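Students often ask what a holo structure prediction actually looks like on paper. The answer is less mysterious than it sounds. You provide the chain, you provide the ligand, and the output is a string of discrete structure tokens encoding the 3D arrangement of the protein together with 2-acetamido-2-deoxy-beta-D-glucopyranose.
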Amino acid sequence: MGGGRKLSASFLSSLFIFFFLSTNARFTPSDNYLIDCGSPHNTILDDGRTFKSDPQSVSYLSTDENIFATSNSTPENETLPLYRTARIFDSESVYRFLVFQPGRHFLRLYFYPLHHPSYNLTTAVFTVKTDQGLVLLHDFSATKNSDSHFKEYLINVPSDDFSLVFSPLKKSFAFVNAIEFNSAPDELVPDSATIISPPGVFNGMSDYDLQIVHRVNVGGPMVSPKNDTLSRTWKSDSHGYMMFPKGDKLVSVDPSTITYPVGGATPLIAPNQVYSSAASMEESGVSNANFNLTWEMKVDSGFNYFIRLHFCDIVSTGMNTLYFNVYVNNMMGISGLDLSSLTSNLAVPYYKDFVLNASAVSNGLIRVQVGPSDLESAIPNAVLNGVEIMKMRNAAGTLDGLFSSSSNSRGVSHTTTIAEVVGVGAATIALLLLIFTFIRNKNKAKGWDQGGTSSKSWFLPLNASYCTTLLSSKSKSKNGYSSVFSSNIGFGRSFTFNELRDATKNFDESVVIGVGGFGKVYIGEIEAGTKLAIKRGNPRSSQGINEFQTEIQLLSKLRHRHLVSLIGYCDENSEMILVYEYMANGPLRDHIYGSTLPSLTWRQRLEISIGAARGLHYLHTGGSSHGIIHRDVKTTNILLDENLVAKVSDFGLSKTGPALDQTHVSTAVKGSFGYLDPEYFRRQQLTEKSDVYSFGVVLFEILCARPALDPALPREQVNLAEWAMAKQRKGVIEMIVDPRILKTICSESLIKYVEAAEKCLAEYGVDRPSMGDVLWNLEFALQLQDASLQLDPPEEDDTCDAKKNKIVSSEKSKKGDETNNDSDVSILINDDSGIVIGSPLFSKIEDFEGR
Ligand SMILES: *[C@@H]1O[C@H](CO)[C@@H](O)[C@H](O)[C@H]1NC(C)=O
Ligand SMILES: *[C@@H]1O[C@H](CO)[C@@H](O)[C@H](O)[C@H]1NC(C)=O
Ligand SMILES: *[C@@H]1O[C@H](CO)[C@@H](O)[C@H](O)[C@H]1NC(C)=O
Ligand SMILES: *[C@@H]1O[C@H](CO)[C@@H](O)[C@H](O)[C@H]1NC(C)=O
Ligand SMILES: *[C@@H]1O[C@H](CO)[C@@H](O)[C@H](O)[C@H]1NC(C)=O
Ligand SMILES: *[C@@H]1O[C@H](CO)[C@@H](O)[C@H](O)[C@H]1NC(C)=O
Ligand SMILES: *[C@@H]1O[C@H](CO)[C@@H](O)[C@H](O)[C@H]1NC(C)=O
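The corresponding structure tokens follow.
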């Protein structure tokens, strides 16, 4: 009996230890972004990780281009399905990730030049860098050769967001198949390492950004991400690293016999499959054995390298019998390494970190050798279990190019290079200033032009052949190839009156889909079922004529995914008819309140507000031309297409900015009550910031699901802007949030969103953000929402409460316990600083736009 109990007790305790160790070994990244770029669906790898589809990850991306390459099969010699699709970037594009836990992060990028009918991906030349100025790839071109397909980095991310910038070389383009951006354990890279030459200690390693160049499971098979807690790949030794394979003897033991030490190596440093296999000397035990085991790896010269060697004595039968030397590039790394005395046992992992000075990497090779020690007592043998070689960021902040590109670069000293970099920077700034002034002047000139002469010259020469390209490019963009809308400038198609009359059953009341001050809007069908929205003006209204002119003039020049496209017009028989793309889901307002349509989710509402913000941002910054003020931003002027993509419409009231004093009499009466900028109302001066104000009202309308003005309500509630601001000032905004979605909104996302809306409603225009800033904040709100769902996958309706509580409880413990209130209300009030919401955001964005 007693024996049995004892046995079970020790069994339990070993079970406990096992559990303890194995849970210890697991690492859950707090940031975990996995994106299968260009893929229409999620991709689940055989290691269980799910890569998000492209549509699901567009919120990280600042681009309106949607160009994809796809292939039915995985490329030769590659196994990952991630290589089957790619996203192509025609212009500089930025992925921006929210960082929950600043510190070490893995960044893994996949590049395979897939076939695309109009882009030859092997000719793409581009640079990949971070917002911290770290260049990861400089003028990079992917080849079908497998060593360019995968790039892996260990980056130090100090702030709470991280941006990855793809910038194509002039006239070229960029692409990427997949992106991984995950937290890594900080202890993975220690602060100090042994310098090999001149011998010493290197401190400050934890500030360095690294690129993993080689990672080898010496003497064993490949270890795939499935068998590594940090999803690393350890290549097998059979890649030609071993120089004199004749002399080596591969040894391996059962991985479960590897015992990790207390303090020192952990499964995070390397999995036991790395330590359970090794190369040792074949002639082991024979007295005349006198040679080194040698591995050589190709690297870029001109960089310092961080080298980690993994050892585990799985060959000896007793303690203190194995002594050997370790050399790196013919220099002594460790003399007389005695593993068993360092680890106090056999089969216990040990690793050692080195820094190799760039001056010692002469011929682009790193040579690692292990060989018998000179100690007389030693049996001549040596082992090596694993090698990791990582390139260190150089003084110029690059992991590629600058030093390594030219052969004479080795002589270049740090100071000249820095001088070069500074010089280039100064030149760039000067150039930017020049361009900026130029554009400003140009815009001014244009603005005056438009203001002065628009009334007569709005009917510019038209070209009917344009329409076919417009229509065909539209269908093309649906297939995901290219969106010509943002670049092409044309003047639409001239329809005949008969064509439009036939399309609308002679302008029958039954096909009316909208009525506005301008006239009626009909749905019409021409040519094989192409649906169009046809807006017929009332010829008797003189105001109508002006608006018609303004609209066709402005719209015909604007092409953007988030602006309703003008397809053509008709001016026969003094008709004023505009023909637009048909927006199947109609005005946004109908989806928020006052109809029987299903309620939109918070995520859909965020995407719609982001879309509308993009459209307005494009209007204000002009895309390629001058800035335009919409002047009538409201939820009925934001339309939704069949995929609920938001597009801004109705430019009948638009004016080219900046304020046109001479028209202030007429401008004073334009706009819609409830949305009207109070400053504009008072001073009758129109700026982009008036649109920003109206957009703030729209944001609250989306959030609270009620009209901007509702005279039926008690006096203090009639005006949504005033009421929402009052609630926000009291910190109880959630009291007026649409109750259908309140529970599904994460508090951080709500805070960010309301913060954006609140800033829009600032009393004075100068205090309001630009549409670009609003856009970034909304995207941030979307990321916060997504991130919280990622941490806590939805189980029930209350998707984000768990996460909310987690963040709040840690926040509370930081602040002390003064607000120990468990209701959501107090959480929202007290959490306004927001753990993850950093003030550096705005300045960073400005940096970006400045470039
Ligand atoms: C793409 O460009 C490469 C290099 O210029 C060329 O060798 C290859 O034939 C091109 N492929 C196609 C499909 O045009
Ligand atoms: C695939 O691997 C085989 C054998 O290693 C090699 O001969 C072939 O060139 C590789 N193909 C490509 C496209 O790299
Ligand atoms: C990798 O892990 C799986 C289980 O996760 C295991 O069955 C398999 O044997 C491991 N592979 C190797 C090479 O040990
Ligand atoms: C092993 O390599 C080191 C450095 O390259 C060299 O000094 C030493 O003589 C070599 N040992 C043997 C036994 O060849
Ligand atoms: C590398 O070596 C050069 C000269 O040999 C020295 O000036 C420099 O400080 C060394 N760098 C490191 C990181 O040790
Ligand atoms: C219409 O465009 C085509 C091609 O862009 C051009 O060749 C033609 O001259 C244009 N016609 C007019 C009337 O401008
Ligand atoms: C909790 O909230 C209620 C009302 O919101 C307030 O009256 C009370 O003082 C709060 N309690 C604490 C401990 O802050």
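The chain has a mean pLDDT of 75.
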